[in-house]
Amino acid sequence: MDDWTKYKNRVKSENPEIGKDLDEVEEISTIVGAMIKQRHNLELSQRDLAELCGIPHSSVARIESGKSTPNLSTLLKIFNQLGLSFTVQPNVKMAKPMK
Q1: Where in the sequence is the domain holding 77, given as residue range(s)?
Q2: 94 in a structural domain
């Protein structure tokens, strides 16, 4: 187990609310990381991607730097231009449905 996992598990046990925040940050990081990786694979600059999506270059830069969290509409525009798609599946971590 790596240090990050140990730290995250300790935080979750001590403060479940902060643990949820850590999970959310990791999920967003995974999505944005896939976006950046595919943009690089396609040899597109942030400016190129922004133009393809019809959004400001600054929006792409802020998303990739973690300074802003994109809304779903923006993510769909970006993913569409990058040839990526989202997959929705049950969260196996959840013991029971949220109310």
Answers
A1: 3-82
A2: no
Count of domains for the chain: 1
Retrieve residue 66's tokens.
């973690």
Strands (E) located in the chain: none
In this structure, what DSSP letter does residue 96 have?
S
Residue 37 predicted with pLDDT over 60: yes
**In sequence order, which residues have a C-beta less than 8 Å from that of residue 29 and are 6 or more positions away?**
66
CATH number reported for the structural domain that contains residue 65 in this entry: 1.10.260.40
Structural domain includes residue 29: yes
Q: What is the pLDDT of residues 41-78, one digit of tens each?
A: 999 999 999 999 999 999 999 999 999 988 999 999 99
pTM exceeds 0.90: no
In a domain, 22, yes or no: yes
Two structure tokens written together for 28 = 């967003």
Cα–Cα distance measured from residue 75 to residue 69, given in angstroms and rounded to the nearest whole number: 9
Output the DSSP codes for 58-82. HHHHHHHHTSSPPPHHHHHHHHHHH
